[in-house]
Design goal:
alpha+beta, 2 domains, 4-stranded antiparallel beta sheet, 4 strands, elongated
Amino acid sequence: MQRRTAAEKVERFLLTRAKREAESIVEVVDAWAQAHDEDVRAAYESLDDLDFIIDRDAELWMPLFALCSIAAPERLLQLKEDAIALSNAKQAADVGDSLPLNLLDDIWQVWPTGSIHLATSDLLAKLRDLAESPWLETQLNDRKLAKMLRPFHVQSRQIRLGTITVKGYRFAELEKAARRYLPTPDKKEETKETDCVNTGENCTFQWETAN
């Protein structure tokens, strides 16, 4: 689940109406569960350890993986990706009260208006130069930065700056995260297209697995 933005409209949830509308679904699910009870139990007992997430989370996710392996085996890869994303987000929340959110907010504040991407080294320098910056004390480096931003789906990637390729971040991902998780992010005026036209910058980039 993700926090909705101010522009997203979500229908109000009413429990009594939901129960009424879900009756037919509950009947189908109950019938399926009774028919496949033994298959799901066998899948759970033979399930390998979910070593891609931490022990405590793996124990909670195992029943869902067993169920998915019988009900929709073609969705197991997607379930794995979701489990990793949610587990990482949970770990980030445990780091400290709102440290990841503070980082996201500070990045939004120091990001140069109109820049479509920014080198990791330049971003770290801007964060450390903030007045009363907490990022000097926490010894923020490229790996810590990537780990703290990962739950927001902001990832370190290869970006092209002129004739060289370096590690960095894309404004498009930062903007999505800021609109979703920050209360009232300031508007960044220039768009990606405007920036490319005005500066003549090579706007090509390469996707890469996050750090």
